[in-house]
Specification:
It contains one helix and ten strands; from the N terminus they run βββββββαβββ. By secondary structure, it is mostly beta strands.
Length: about 130
């Protein structure tokens, strides 16, 4: 799936068992492009009742996620009820293979408007869907 702005196209990717990924690329009409995307495997997943809450642990990094009871809402603000499937994936910045799945190119704009590089201690994808 992709969306195009005036200067670039954003491509989004999804696959079972992996955190979603996206990348920006410059495309011109009538041209071909090769895009290589690294997707991060999900670290942990569980299904539980929203009323009870639940927790997940990524055994490889020791990272954990706790979802308190009745803490999830839909984008319109209405409460989620019933069971949910929650998954997460941790990007370990000390692992080059995991780092390849980090979104973006580590560029940013500093407080004074200058271009700077981000320094990251890690990142995580957290997803929740109706079960």
């Amino acid at each position: 799936r992709g969306s195009t702005s005036s200067s670039c196209t954003v491509l989004s990717f999804s696959a079972d068992g992996y955190a979603p990924a996206s990348t920006r690329t410059e495309l011109t009409v009538g041209s071909e492009a090769v895009v290589i995307v690294t997707m991060q495997p999900l670290s942990a997943s569980a299904t539980f009742a929203v009323a009870d809450g639940g927790s997940l642990v990524d055994e490889s990094t020791g990272s954990n996620l706790t979802v308190p009871p009745n803490s999830l809402t839909y984008p319109d603000g209405s409460p989620v009820e019933g069971p949910v499937s929650v998954s997460f994936s941790v990007i370990d910045v000390t692992d080059p293979a995991a780092l390849a799945a980090m979104p973006g190119d580590f560029s940013a704009v500093g407080e004074n408007g200058e271009e700077v590089f981000l320094q990251s201690l890690g990142a995580a994808f957290i997803g929740a869907t109706d079960a």
